[in-house]
Each structure stands twice: as structure tokens, then as C-alpha cells.
Amino acid sequence: MADAWLQVVPRRREDRERLVTDLRRKLVPQDIDGYRKMLEVQPGNAALHDDLALLAIEAGDLTLAIQQFERVVGLRPAAAAAHYNLGNALMGAGRAPDAERRFREALRLDPAYGLAWQGLGLALAAGGLLDGSAAALTEAGRLMPASADAVYNLGVVRQRQGREAEALRAYDRAANLDGRHAEARYGAALLHGGRGEHLTAIRLLREALAVRPAWTDAHVELAWLLAVSAEDALRSPLEALALADAAVRAAGAAASVRLLDVHAAALAANGAYAAAAAQVRGALALPAAAEPGLRAALQDHLSRFERHEPLRLP
């Protein structure tokens, strides 16, 4: 008996993309089973192990991906790409020290492997070794001058080092290299916002959202600025509340301290002070709010809302 297929004709591009994604989600487990059967016959075929690992990543099974990439390394120990792929999977699983060793081995085999330098930089950053990370990412950028990701990641490290001017230059360069690099625009927006340059920050957040319309973090930061900017012409309380409401609904019980605080600010900007105070109290009850500086800021916000005062950034 043949399989029956029901064809759904997409009306919009996003509908087509969703259909393709749904179809892949259904087919990947079948593909994995198929590769397992082929490997029973050809256990020494490195290309099959490699393909199975990539399918496992697509399925979200990093344990299987790591296992298969380890088999590839065992079969091709002199292949720099094999060590790099294993390092990437280990990074995805949160095993940065193990990933660092694999990236270093890839670089021993191929010192000009730009992606491995980038992987090493990310692994070192995950361990807090920011100077080494910056050096590795700088080398990645030298070897891959057209890579926006290498430059962006260097910007993230520079920001963590407190070298904001260098971080901004890196974000701007990454955005110029890749006109659709939303993360570079978001990183720059946070820095500009922190400097009080709200108009630029709002523009960059809108540009980031034009590329990634469903990005919750960008929605939240845009809502914050639209709710609390000191510049009357930049505030848009209704839009701020709409953005924050949607983010809170999407997060549900997993809403972060930051999200609850932003939602409170948007509520207060619209005169809903009691609801704003309730959200801040909810934020204060979360374990993450125990950090002294954050707790003091939240308590200040709560006091303002209880006095029916909106928040305003300087």
C-alpha cells in the first residue's frame, strides 16, 4: 500500500518555510534510522558517521552527534575538520574544556584553519579566558576577513573586557560585512543604549528585528527604551506595552527578572502602577534577583511605582 500525501499549498513565504521545517522534522528520524542500518554494514565508513552526526545535530541529539564525530576522529585522526566538528558539538553540549582540546588539535594539524581559531576563541571565552579568546578571534578574523561572525564574536569579548569602543567598532564592522547580522546590531544597540544614545539604540534594535522578527530579547530591549527613554519624542508607551505583553505571554512561567522589570516599566509608562508594582514584586521573588546591585535597582523601581512615578533613564 502506497503512502498517501496531503499537499498543503503555502500562500506566503513563511508558510512555505514552516512546511519545509515540519517536513524535515518528520523525515530526519527516518534518515537517522537509515544511516544506522548502513553503518551496520559499513562501520568503518567515516563519511557515513559524519553524515549521521550532522543529522543528529539537526534532530537536537548532541549525544549521538558527539558519539558519531568521535568515530570520525578515530577513523580520520589526521583530518583537522574532524576535530573541529567534534569541538563544535562539544561546545553545543556545554563541554568547553573538551572542545578547546579538539580545536587546538585541529589547529596543530592545520594552523591556518580560521574556523578552528574561532572555535578556540569561543571555548576560551566560555571559560572566562578573555585575553586568549580575543587573540584567537583576532587570528580568526585575519584568516577569514569576510567573516562577520568572527568579528562579531571578538566584539562580544571586547565588551566583556569593558573595552566598549573596540566592541562597538567590531559590531559595526560585522554589520557592514553582513547586512543581515542581527546579533551585531543588537550588541551595538545595548552599548549605545547604555551610553544614553537612545535614538541610535532604537534604530539598531528595529534593524535587528527586521532580520529576526521573533527575537524576544530584541523585543524586550526595544520595549525598555520605548517605555523609559528620557526623550519624550522617543517614548512610545503603547508600543512598549504591546512588545512586553507579547514577550511575557511567550515566556510564561519562565519569565526572567529582566523581562518582568521591563514589563513593569511599560505598564507604568501607561499609568498601570499597581500592575507594574506587582510585576516587580514577582521579579524580586526570583532567585536571580538576589544579586545585590540588581536587587537594589528593582527595589528602587518598586518604590517609584508605589509612588505612581514612571521610570526615566538619564
Give the SSE layout.
Layout: H1 13-41, H2 46-59, H3 62-75, H4 80-92, H5 96-109, H6 114-126, H7 130-143, H8 148-160, H9 164-177, H10 182-194, H11 198-211, H12 216-228, H13 237-251, H14 257-269, H15 273-284, H16 292-306
Overall pLDDT metric: 91
Based on CA atoms alone, the radius of gyration comes out at 24 Å
Flag low-confidence runs.
1-21
Largest sheet: none
Number of strands: 0
Through-space gap between termini? 71 Å
Q: How much strand?
A: under 5%
- H/E series, N to C? HHHHHHHHHHHHHHHH
Query: What overall geometry do the principal axes of the alpha carbons give?
Result: elongated
The number of helices is 16
Helix content: over 70%
Helix/strand-derived category reads: mainly alpha
Structural account:
The structure is a single chain. The protein is mainly α and 314 residues long. It contains 16 helices and no strands. The longest helix has 29 residues, at 13-41. The chain is elongated, with a radius of gyration of 24 Å.
Short description:
It is built from 16 helices and no strands. It is mainly alpha-helical. The longest helix is centred in the N-terminal third of the chain and has 29 residues.
What are the key terms here?
314 residues, mainly alpha
